[in-house]
Design goal:
single chain, 302 residues, Heat Shock Protein 90, five-stranded parallel β-sheet, 37% helix, 18% strand
Amino acid sequence: MSNQPVRTPGSFDHRMAAPATDDAFLAAALPFLEEGLTAPDEPPPVAIVAPAKLDLLRDALGPDAEKIGLVPHTDWYTGSAANAVARAAGHLAAHAGPGGRLHLLMEPVWNGRAGRSPRESAEWIRYEALANLLFAPTATTALCVYDTRTAGFALIEAARRAHPDTGVYEQPARLAAELDAVPLPPPPSDAHRLTEPAPDAVRAWAAGRGLGAADAELFATAVTEAASLGPVTGALLWGEASGCVCELTVARRVDDPLAGFVPPPTPDLAPGQGLWFARQVCAYVDLRDAGGGSTSVRLQYG
């Protein structure tokens, strides 16, 4: 069976380029932006790339540069991969043409937060894979740039499997399952055990581990939101300050790879959004099959 996704008219067009030089970047970016400028019923394209690449585009485009949205990628990718989902969804809702029509040239910050560890890089590959499902109803066209001078071979090869135009595309659920098959480090033996994750207890524990009042409140709320997945049968807490971790065991099996990634109807972050809130607040939220119809939900703040 082919790995190529089933395409429908107007569905998300998710492309990838892996340039090794500035000239190769321009060779991929300029035709893409021109395609966006001439596409019917679309606002001007947006380039979200490294500041140095914005300079390259300004020089190459000349007066046409004023027709294109130019955004430093350090202003766009400011948090976790789940935050990037929210940023993209919000931008499309506010600025895209009919059906989400918009050309986006996008370069993740691989020499910054999104690429400073294998753990964070794995989460970014998850985002790239799930984007094929999350944005499938839109007519958005995205070209993701992976500069080989900063991204590295292993990361680029993994990213190819998340982009339908590469010839090695894997279905998003399968790729997400591979990421989830990597074991998480076990909780420490001295982890603090709670009979139930009451917000006051989590907040007090987090404050005692060095989190400021506002961060302790957010962490406690994220834990409460994650606990809404189902009856909680166990809760462990460990870590210090921004590395505080809570692991919940909920009596429910969660098989949906998009759990917590689908944006709510309104863009405002507010309690009552469950796992979406938790993913927006925490650096990592990991779901694992805990056996017996239960799921382990691990939240790491910061």
